[in-house]
Design goal:
Helix content: 40-55%
CATH class of the largest domain: Alpha Beta
CATH topology of the largest domain: Beta Polymerase, domain 2
Strand order of the largest sheet: 3-2-5-9-8-7-6
Strand content: 5-15%
Number of strands: 9
CATH architecture of the largest domain: 2-Layer Sandwich
Amino acid sequence: MADLNNVGVVPVSRFLAAEPVFSCQLDGKGKAIPLTNDSEATVQQPCWLHLDFAKPETINWIHSTDLIPEIVKNELIKPNQISKEIRFDSGILVVLKGVNFIPNELPDPIVTFRFFITDNLIISTRHQQIDAIFQLKDNLEKGIGPVDVADWLIQVSELISDQVNQSFDSVHNKIVKLEDLVLNQRIFSHKEIGRVRKQLFILRRLLSPQRDIFVKISTERISWIDDNDRQRLHDISSQQNHYVSDIDSCLLRIASLMEQINSFLAESTNKRIYLMSLFTIIFTPITFLTSLLGVNLAGIPYNEQQWSFVGLVLLIIVICIGSVIWLKYKKWL
């Protein structure tokens, strides 16, 4: 938790002009206290300022405030970012990516969350709404929220990880259903597999760098992060590493599904071609005789005999029966 030897005090009036989406002061017991002009951000009761970086008021305040290092200001308002962690003397800048899990809809929307955190102040920015932040606010209302900045960092990381877990569980359940369909030899659209694969690739690209970020934060010698906090961050990293392994396994299962589907389609096509070939073999002699003798009926052998037409019909029947017997003998029919 926080190191009380480095207590800092920041008047809240210095950042209320930012017009935040959400702001509060942690009471140190898991609840949030509304901010007033007389409030002060301390180590025991840090303040959280949540901003929309696309608002002009936010951009102007970030550029004008001296609470944030210059290099951090651009990172907080930059629209397209990769996951990263940068250490400063006064705090750390972290950029995380998460998902807003939507049941029965793939792929899930990807959201980016940026925050600069010191021993007594948290400044976070986003443009899209983030479900993990709503859950954290709900925890504060219930009195089970973070008690200090280190606990806030861990709870945010866990909530973002939980959203990823829900998204992965949804994808995994979809894969199980697709596997059942394949086992029952039922064909489905390749678009379904395409959506599942896309979500898996998105989750893997999201998780791979972030597991390293949590490891890096847990190894940083930061005064307000104690050994217990480091262990919790390391556990989050291990959990995300487990997700990456599961995603790789699911990608292999998707590849196996594609092979089975292609094999099933090839077998079905071969059966149809085989059936058409049988009909072709049966009717080829008939077609040949009718083409040969049907040009001029008066020219067939024994045409002056009364039984000539009946003989021709019997000959065709014998050829058809002989073709079927031959196919049976060859086990083609």
